């Protein structure tokens, strides 16, 4: 499956594409709805084929959390700038944001149970308890010292 097809599928699931100019409007709308924003920084799917898998999982996660999540895809041309803003170090990455706070990052494709567990912990954490560092989950099977 080509990533453009996956992006079209995501728009059918109500996910929009955001860029540096529109991301704050999207984040504000998610906050107003009482939801946590989930942004997908996919990267180049030719370089990071997992991007397609994460793109397929994202709408399923939104459905599983019954309106507690609002999702969007970061436009390719703005992934670098927004990645710096939110602390993205690898792609693909899901970025969870609420009330201007980056709650956490989940990198690469994960098992369903990892997504559910980590997202639940991130969105149920009492507000005001800011994490010192945005947590990135990288698959444990990665070799030590390998640059991602």
UniProtKB/TrEMBL annotation:
Pfam families: HyaE. SUPFAM superfamilies: Thioredoxin-like (SSF52833). InterPro entries: NiFe-hyd_mat_HyaE, Thioredoxin-like_sf. It comes from the Bacteria. Belongs to the HupG/HyaE family. This is Hydrogenase expression/formation protein. It comes from Bradyrhizobium frederickii.
